[in-house]
Amino acid sequence: MAIDASGAWIREADISFETNEPDSFALEEALRLKEKHGGEVVAISMGPERAKQTIKEAMAKGAERGVHVVDDKFYSLDPLGSARSLTAAIQKENFDLILTGLQSEDHGFGQTGVLLAELLGRPHATIIMSINLHGDHLRVKRELEAGWFQWVELPLPAVLTIQSGINKPRYATLKGIMAAKKKEITSVPRESLGVQSAPTQKVERIYVPQKTKKTEFITGSPKEIAAKLVEKLQHEARVL
Amino acid sequence: MKILFISEQREGKWNKVSFEALAAAQQIVSQAKGSVTAIVIGQGVAGLADELAGYQLEEVLLVENALLEKYTPDGYSIALKQAIEQSKPDLVILPHTYQVRDFAPKLAASLNKGMIGDCVGYRYENGKLVFVRQMFQGRTAADVTFQGDGPWIASFQAGAFRGDAAAKNASGKAPVKPVNVQLKPEQIRTKPLELFREAKQAVDLTQAPILVSIGRGIKAPENIPLAEKLAKALGAELSASRPICDEGWLPMERQIGSSGQTVSPKLYLALGISGAIQHVVGMKGSRCIVAINKDQNAPIFEIADYGVVGDLFEIVPALTEAVESKSG
User: B106 and chain A: CB distance < 8 Å anywhere?
Assistant: First the structure.
């Protein structure tokens, strides 16, 4: 991974893109809820043309339709700007439940779900490990720190952010991939949403972090490495 | 610079990361003219406010309400919004806990402000405050600045500052000032139920002098005996990063990291662990860290004392043999 000429983003030409892993757990949870209780799953993604691939994958796994908020410069948005754009794109749909992954693997802000809840005026719960639907409300298991959990009840409509590992995301089947070709993706250019949001923060530059420790790299054949490492752990670090 | 530091407690006990955030707030203000005010929020937490008043602070704001006895994102956001509007800080600092992740973005949005979360450091550059956080799962750091007017809201990751560096007040106590907030029961839409722990903690990894820890690089559960043999030779416990426990390859109680256990053994061997920050916060206090990983750019090497770039399936058996022959 290399940093681009602006110094504030990565060189996209060097890498391949895939669905944000934490989001695949949220999608799986949505599909399971639909299979159990009925309804419709809509997959929404914001980004350049390639974001369509993520939506297609979601539809191949079982989502009914997709919404693509098209923006080539989405990565320069701050969390609040992203959430405002997504809110504008989905507000009229009145979804009963909005699920997001815990965070993205690039920016890692971890704010989108909570911000959507606030902007849409919905209750929310985060870092969810189990969802039970009881009529017009949810009973969810929230993960806390150090092995603690908590059950929380909240009314629908609501927003949940899903902890990675809550389920085992399915793979798309060939049948699913074929079926997805007939499903519809609504494209919404982000500028058409009329969201005027002055950025609240700016990534000035990104860089390879400075080491806090000096790592001594040990090289050689596996046997040589093993011998050197044991020697160092015994006589240099004195931990064996 | 006027800083408002929001502390965290649950059932009358501190979340200790609070003091790390307090230390961060004090250090930020020491390089600029200003003061730090603290908030204690909850119900029946005057004792905690009194304790906090012993630290170097301008004052301690006590936000109490029967509806704040148990944490809810609605209750905390509504109450803290009012406290922030009354105290008018330039910068609000919080510890980056699970609870803060749950309410702080909402609080910021309700003030029409942004939040820079999960910071690992800060610095002043030409008089401008720059926050440092990680991106791409620790593969890069990012310098982030706030745009527009305050109050700015930032949270600091556990381990970024030392809690014992929070300065106490040598000559007395800061005043504790109660803050009235308006809160109605119908504004709180979520209902928090009981807190519980799932797994009985059969193994206490915090007491193990040596840990052999596995990550995604182990590839399949059939390969775990490889790590087990090394652990046995070293007299170590076996532990893992989150994905391994999520897959069910090892029980949750063997998980190291922000959602598992925090350990500081004398020796920590990370096998095929990339070093995502959620894992690193749980083990970076280890006295000696050895990392074996095939990706030379894996962030785990940033904190390792000894690093081996290579195939763990070749190196681990050789290492097990070398350890056995040493002790045998």
Answer: yes
